Structures
1.
Amino acid sequence: MWLRKLIIAACFAGCLPCTDVFAADTKEVREIRFDQIYSGSGPQGASFSPLARSLEGKRVRIAAFAAVPFRAEAEFMMLTRSSMHVCPYCNSDNNWPIDIIVAYTKGVAPVTNPTAPINVTGTLELGPKLDPVTGMVSQLRMIDSVVEPVRR
């Protein structure tokens, strides 16, 4: 907190340019849970909830589990509501949960224990999008994601 006050004072004194020094720091982050993402399904499949639609383009945080990485040094991770004890890519009989989230990170995604919960914060994107590297189509993404362990 004292650092923030020092930088603000430096801005007003003219020592630092008064730009969005705290843009990333002060953006509101909203919590969302997996059970709040979809509101039902219809002929076109699952539909996004009004809450999810209202948070599109905003920073959100979700408690999740990371599936086993798709490939080494990937710049994304697959988030699920519960721990996936088997490799989802290794067995074609495995069904992905409908509410997976692709979390794109800045740089290589951290390797996490698939049985340990994590908190992921990122900008929410909704709707189909093709990943040009993997060819995978996602319905739900978090961009510029930051991953932290759940503190108990």
Note: The helical segments are 2-12, 23-26, 50-55.
2.
Amino acid sequence: MKQTRKRFFIDKKTGSWERAKLVRWAIENEFNTLVFPLDDNFFKGGNSKYIKLAKRFAFYIEAGGDDLSLLMPRSLFLFNKELFRMEQGKRKQKHHFCPTNPKTIELIAGRTRKVFSRAFQKMSPDRIFHLLPDEGHETTWCQCPACRAFRPAEQYLIAVNTAADVLAKMDSQAKLYYVDFDTEPEAARVKTRANMVIRK
């Protein structure tokens, strides 16, 4: 019988010492899964107390969180503003990007491959990723002429579909969890991929 996972998301802003304490707290509160941020040193080969604790107590290890914007490096904004979201006629560096731009999709695919592959070796064998929009900015998406044809929830799915396609090529059994925050699901025009799972 497959064990139900009780997930504890590690905050990317929490330091190593605090994380070690949080892992102990997760143990005491019967969590069995730790979800590390994709931009975390955990996936860059770093070693610390919380990693040892995770292994010692046989946690499932997953990756992700509100890391979607990580797939579009903010450093590209100065010379590639067209890759980023538009708001009231101006391109904005913060929060998400322009998902209907083909060059954006190409860059997201390449970045997904790099970020996900860095996490592969340290994760549980079934490899579960979580890719969520920026917290508090779930509806902060692009308003350029092309993107206006899609609601924020659909723009989010366009981006997640791109990552899901890359993940399917890397590992056909891996899963990508996403949030369905569409208030008009019956009107959705963007279909999700087979390796995507709605996060409850």
Note: The longest strand covers residues 60-65.
3.
Amino acid sequence: MLLAILWTRFAPWTFQLRTPLVIANWKLQGSRDLCGKFKSELRIPSNVEVWIAPPALYLDSLVSGQPTSAKVGVQNVHFDEAGAYTGEIAAGMVRDLGGIFSIVGHSERRTLFHETDQVVAQKFLACCEAELTPVLCVGETLDQREEGIAKEVVWNQVAEVLEKCDPAVFGRAQLAYEPIWAIGTGVVATPEDAEDMHGHLRSMIADSTVLTGEELRILYGGSVKIDNASQLIAQANVDGFLVGGASLDIVQFNSICQIASGN
């Protein structure tokens, strides 16, 4: 196990074993017009995967008719499969409409909607049971980083999921590190900040699950733009991006996808 951790953390070529993934998170934005632009103008490099998370109302617009070449999912699901939960969406419903993934635990869900680590873990499990791929978001606040407990906080968010789920199911998940202090602020973690946290997460995953760690893609999210994408993707443990505001501009988003390809 120790050998696997050291290999993952220090082999400079390990990132090449994982196909870069770029996810567009439109948040509470978008339109049928934007869906149409993505279906007609999205350019996906041959060595990159692209996923789109529109508001759930637009899921069908992206998967029906002449579908986009990207995979499509949603930004959030409820933790139960059915019930008296007015306004909520079940993971099975997303799957029924052709969605393949759901983001869970985004910082805005945690801070604005007060989702606890326990609720996020329940949603992660609901995705797995519905055969959706969960994209688990983790991250710390500025106060937590300044207190020196960022790694502990972030790992506890992952550990709560591992406690509720068979660790083997984590093998189908994607992980996204998004420092809360860099979400929508225009401030971005330095490449060194991102690499340090991503490397920590990868080694902890290897130590706590049946995975070696090098199998797991860890994305960076937090004010990703054309200007900083090249330096971030050059880090050995950064496997792609969770893109917010820049994903609403198809030209910018195409450029970020191209940067993720390494070309």
Note: The chain has a mean pLDDT of 91.
4.
Amino acid sequence: MNQWRKRDPIKDYFPLPNEVFQLGLVPGELAVYAYLLYCEDRQTYQCWPSFKTIGRAVGMCVNTVQKYVSMLVRKGLIRAENTSVITRDGQKRNGNLRYTILPIQAAIERYEHLRLEELELETARLRHQQRQNQLPA
């Protein structure tokens, strides 16, 4: 008989908000966002994995991870801040980015606002096109 270890619902899982699927994320954005949620400190909502570490975890190269991090920042899902470290010989160096996972509701509101603007522009474009088609030749 096969014995399966019982999984702890707190330690063995991480929360992924249901609303994330309403934001039109591409698979790469979703993968990077999920990994950052996996890494986050649930009291501070922060984590600081390197691009290389994220890439290894989700199967992407560093440049691709950088691209998706930038997209997540623009969409208001995360904030990324530069950090610095002091080496043993006293030199100041750039550290990993510190990511803060932002409240999902703000990202949803931003996404809905942008979608509404896109729809308004498309409606205006269609009205203009209709008027052009009605003009006598």
Note: Helices lie at 27-39, 51-58, 62-74, 104-134.
